[in-house]
Specification:
Layout lengths: L1 H18 L18 E5 L2 E4 H6 L3 H26 L1 H11 L3 H12 L5 H37 L4 H8 L9 H15 L5 H31 L2 E3 L15 E2 L6 E7 L4 H16 L4 E7 L8 H12 L4 H10 L6 H10 L4 H10 L3 H13 L7 E4 L2 E2 L6 H14 L18
Parallel strand pairs: 5-6
Antiparallel strand pairs: 1-2, 1-3, 4-6, 5-7, 7-8
């Protein structure tokens, strides 16, 4: 990723100089042949990094540059906090090198010693860069899929879209337009005429159907065309825990969720994760890690109860019982669950009393914070953070990418809608 960033910066400096005023001096006028690596394969067509970057809108390139600069400054600040200004000055003089050269040299050896907060901020900025680049990748993939399909049919992309999208979308019916007009009038009053509202409603409904049909068509093209992304996304070091894992330890894809037993949305995501486990049976393992939020006063003791139950081999049974009734998480309620599961109550009470599992929970919180976790639920797929709300589409999208990149067949789509960003 570091090399990719340097290439990106060089291109940014050149491409932005004319349009956005002076920029930092470029050390390279372009991406050289040796640096311009392949980043994507769509069907048999290979896409190089220079093509990807050149295809990004100027605003997106500027966003990436700002995030890169912010991340580099965060790394430098973390090193200053770690070593202190006096040590840095002494080492600069001893080695006869500049501050930037010294910090760059120390960075790779010192990342693991940064504070969890600093590692979390650096991880967040890395993901911001990756998300912007991924948006560029998605656009390139769509364009390549359309170009290849158009060539196969001997027509232009515009003609292909007209045939496969525009001609297959019916205009909205009068009753559909009427429903929208009635709703708008009720919501906003009669400040616009019904004729104006009807015209706007017809246009909006058609645009919505066109967008949906385009996504469906692209999904069908992607299903029949192999796509391989060769650049890797930032991966957090969020190790799965065999004691809190559903699925095979040697599964090619590991989903890790940082969650909170008192968090209502976490309970809904548990349902999604159960769907994921069934959909990808044998290919995906799901690990639960604790991230009790301070605002949830019962979350940490509930996590202790689950982990103490885990010491008796019933972690998931206790875990499921907690999410099934989040309104009852008091100490007596936690004991009652243990009794219902026929746990050895002497061992359970001793575990709770001694705080035996507190270190494990604290380690989960530290690892989560260092990986950029700030709220719950936060889901990682092979270390890649789900961007946005974790749902079946967003989780499946990353799982499918991980499987494809390992040459493993993916689960056929059950919906015509394109799997992609979280809603």
């Amino acid at each position: 990723m570091r090399g990719q960033v340097r290439i990106l910066l060089a291109v940014l400096c050149v491409s932005l100089a004319g349009a956005a005023g002076p920029s930092r001096p470029a050390t390279k006028a372009s991406v050289t042949a040796s640096e311009d690596r392949e980043v994507l394969i769509v069907g048999e067509e290979k896409v190089r990094e220079s093509d990807l970057i050149a295809g990004l809108p100027q605003e997106k390139r500027q966003q990436i540059e700002r995030a890169i600069q912010a991340r580099e400054e965060a790394e430098r600040q973390a090193l200053r906090d770690l070593f202190g200004e006096r040590y840095i000055q002494q080492e600069m003089e001893r080695r006869g090198i500049t501050r930037d050269a010294l910090l760059a040299d120390e960075l790779s050896r010192s990342r693991g010693n940064f504070s969890p907060h600093e590692r979390g901020e650096i991880a967040r900025l890395s993901r911001e860069i990756s998300t912007a680049e991924q948006a560029g990748l998605d656009a390139v993939i769509e364009n390549k899929l359309l170009e290849q399909a158009a060539r196969r049919q001997g027509m232009s992309v515009e003609a292909l879209l007209a045939a496969e999208v525009e001609k297959k979308v019916d205009p909205p019916s009068g009753s559909e337009i009427q429903l929208v007009v009635d709703y708008e009038e009720k919501l906003r009053g009669g400040w616009r005429s019904r004729e104006e509202l009807a015209k706007q409603a017809a246009s909006s409904l058609r645009d919505l159907r066109l967008a949906r049909r385009r996504q469906e068509f692209l999904a069908s093209l992607r299903a029949e065309t192999p796509v391989r992304v060769l650049i890797d996304s930032p991966r957090a070091n969020v190790a799965p825990d065999p004691g809190r894992m559903r699925g095979a330890k040697d599964a090619p894809v590991h989903v890790v969720v940082f969650s909170d037993f008192e968090c209502p949305y976490c309970a809904r995501v548990e349902t999604v994760l159960n769907q994921v486990s069934k959909k990808y049976e044998g290919k995906v393992a799901v690990t639960f890690r604790d991230f009790p939020l301070p605002m949830h006063t019962s979350a940490e003791q509930a996590a202790e109860g689950a982990n103490c139950a885990g010491l008796q081999g019933k972690y998931w049974e206790y875990h499921d019982a907690l999410f099934a009734d989040q309104a009852h998480l008091s100490p007596p309620d936690l004991r009652k669950r243990a009794e219902t599961l026929d746990l050895d109550m002497g061992l359970f009470d001793a575990c709770i009393e001694a705080g035996e599992t507190k270190p494990k929970i604290a380690q989960d919180v530290e690892d989560g914070a260092a990986s950029g976790v700030a709220g719950t639920p936060t889901v990682f797929v092979n270390g890649r953070l789900i961007d946005g709300a974790p749902n079946i589409e967003s989780i499946s999208r990353l799982i499918d990418e991980e499987l494809r990149n390992r040459g493993i067949p993916v689960v056929p789509a059950t919906s015509a809608r394109l799997s992609g960003r979280a809603e």
